[in-house]
Write a structure and sequence with these properties.
CATH superfamily: Leucine Aminopeptidase, subunit E, domain 1
Helix content: 25-40%
Number of domains: 1
Distance between the termini: 35 Å
Strand order of the largest sheet: 2-3-1-4-6
Shape: globular
Strand content: 15-25%
Number of helices: 4
Order of helices and strands: EHEEHEHEEHE
Length: 159
Amino acid sequence: MNMRYTPEIISSLEENQIFVFGSNRRGVHGAGAAFLAKKVFGAKAGVGLGLTGQCYALPTKGFEIETLSLSEIGVSFQRFIKCVIDNPQLDFLLTKVGCGLAGYTTDDIAREFWHGMEHNGQKKIPANLWVPREFVFTGDYEESLFVTAPTHVEESADE
């Protein structure tokens, strides 16, 4: 399967596609990609994390609109990747969350994206996840070009 990169401009979605945007924990979608998510793709006010409308809100800002730390954004990616794995019928179009209003570089955010992947047992980008090109061609992760079906991590009853 070929790698699918998120387009720079997203103005419409197919029925099974989900627009992934950087949000604040309060769910006030007033600027940037969050405003587009609310206006065009149905993101609901008050939902700062998870599926909302035809979107996924991935927090990069806090309740007071302060920029979250990279480790906090990393936790957001862990939850997001789990959602991707749990919903193989949906295609998630990940935008460059955290690289606009939150002010991080693509390398910073790419690193947190890959930590989220590793946390969920993913070594390859799931087939239902479109990513910014900059998140793939970064540092130690250039070998990650290959795409695979999502792998569900089963927890053993023995643990």
